[in-house]
Amino acid sequence: MTRRGWAYFVAVGVIWGLPYLLIRISVREISPPLLVFIRTGGASLVLVPLAAARGALVPAIRRWRALLAYTVAELAIPWVFLFNAERRLPSSLSGLLVAAVPLVAAVLAWSTRSEHVDLRRVAGLVVGITGVGVLVGFSVAGSQLLSVLSLGAVVVGYAIGPWLVDHRLRGVPPLGVIAWSVLLCAIGYAPAALLELPARPLSASVIESAAALTVVCTIVGFLLFFALISEVGAMRATLVTYVNPAIAVVLGVAVLGEHFGPATAAGFVLVLGGCYLASRPPRRAARLPASAAASAAASAAVDEGVEGTSAPVDDDMNGDVGSAGAPGTVLSP
Q1: DSSP code for 215
Q2: How far is CA 137 from CA 1, 156, 172, 263, in A?
Q3: What does the alpha-carbon distance between residue 120 and residue 105 come to, in Å, rounded to a whole number?
Q4: How far apart are CA 58 and CA 166, in angstroms?
Q5: Dihedral sign, CA of 254, 18, 240, 155?
Q6: Whole-structure pTM value
């Protein structure tokens, strides 16, 4: 990996580990629907004109049904559920539980017969689920169970979204998909946002967190992720999935003083280890000749969210969106 590639990788890993902390602070004074509107509405002000200038909007809207389904699965439902859950759950725990997305993505890929199942991937699924059980059993209070269940909707949505990208939006410019998605989501949440405007002025920390969530974690995060894919390829780019939870834990403990005990550490290792095994390409692909393996990877690429194999992408943001993630890759938390 080049120096520029490493720079993009570290930047995206940090930027997409930040949202859990920023969400936790923001929802102290901003309702989840309003925060979704702020994040998507603000992002659309930059991403939509950029996508229009690159000619990426028209190709995306031609598949409006799949685009709408992706928006609901990847943004509209997961974000409001995640924001609501973080009113009660520590940001670090939320980040760790959402890290289980590759497990659901693997099950989805297997159930639709879009990927081969081998013993290693089944073992990864078992290990990952065990990790989730450890986190829930030892780190969650009874009053927090409903919030944990709502994160289940987040995880499922983050797994379905990329699957839709690969099977229903293949060949569509990724920038166009993201631009339309944030715009549609903002329009959908506008009525609820208007009904839940704050009754008192927001504190400086909340304003700064909401702004950073919009500008840094959404606008800059997406653009850097596209640049990372162009620099190192989709396969390596998806490895950032394993960095995000670590950043979320470090920030939650360091900034908010959240607890991180032995059970949380064990669950963290099990979840990430299980995700790694479950999202690895089947062993039989490694035995193919180089040319055949490249062809197989290109044709069998299957998708934050919690977004494996992935096909190569074009060298700009107008490339094949089907290559923008691998199974279980979360494009943005």
Answers
A1: I
A2: 39, 20, 42, 9
A3: 16
A4: 18
A5: positive
A6: 0.79
Rounded to the nearest 10 degrees, how much is the dihedral formed by the CA atoms of 87, 94, 146, 76?
Answer: 80
Structural domain boundaries of the chain? 3-323
Label residue 199 left, alpha or beta by phi (over 0 means left) and psi (-120 to 50 means alpha). Answer: alpha
State how far the Cα of 55 lies from the Cα of 49, in Å rounded to an integer. 10
Q: Which residue has the higher pLDDT, 138 or 151?
A: 151
* Alpha-carbon gap, residue 80 to 100, rounded angstroms: 18
- Cβ atoms within 10 Å of 5's Cβ, excluding its own: 17
3-state secondary structure at position 309: coil
CA–CA separation, 300 and 309 (whole Å)? 7
Q: Is residue 316 within 8 Å of residue 161, measured between CB atoms? A: no
CA distance 222 to 17: 13
Q: What are the C-alpha distances in Å from 93 to residues 19, 22, 318?
A: 13, 14, 35
Distance CA 281, CA 174 (A): 23
The mean pLDDT value for 4-26 works out to 91
Task: Convert the pLDDT of each residue in 70-113 to its tens digit.
Answer: 999 999 999 999 999 999 888 888 888 887 887 787 788 778 87
281 three-state secondary structure: coil
pLDDT class for 313, splitting at 50, 70, 90?
A: very low
